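Section 3.1: Structural characterization of target chains.
Under the original work plan, the team committed to producing a structural model for every single-chain target entering the pipeline before any wet-lab resources were allocated. The record below documents one such target. The sequence was received from the expression subgroup and is listed exactly as submitted; it comprises 151 residues.
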Amino acid sequence: MDRQPHEPPFARPELLVEMRAAERKERREGIKLIALGIAFFLIGVFLCVVGNVWTGVIGIAFGTMAITVGAAKAMGGTSPAARVVMIIGCAAFAATGALALIAGIVAPAAFGWRGGMSGIVAGALCLGFFGPGTLILIYKEYRLRQRNARR
């Protein structure tokens, strides 16, 4: 190893090049996710206008989730703004699950030949994972900000 023990890892230019390449890849993936989210959002709006309101609202919530998560990835993921945007994305995914669960109960015909049970199962799984996940992310962000405020 040609690096001294006290030398920071960024003193090696090849590591810096790899880190920048990884950041560019994350940014590109974030932009692609934003584009996909916009498509889901617009299709959801179209479905609401055409008459399939439940599927449209679920599409809008899913599109919102994809846009916010893509924005967080494009920002870099570790900044305070990116963490808040990721919390919003997780909450939007929980909302997608809640809407699918409600739609499966209230309007099972919205799921077509699959029936309302598919909406109930998918919605419960989505809400069961991302609902507590949102609360955990909010708690972690709160603790991090409290810790930083004390310093």
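The chain has one domain: 24-150.
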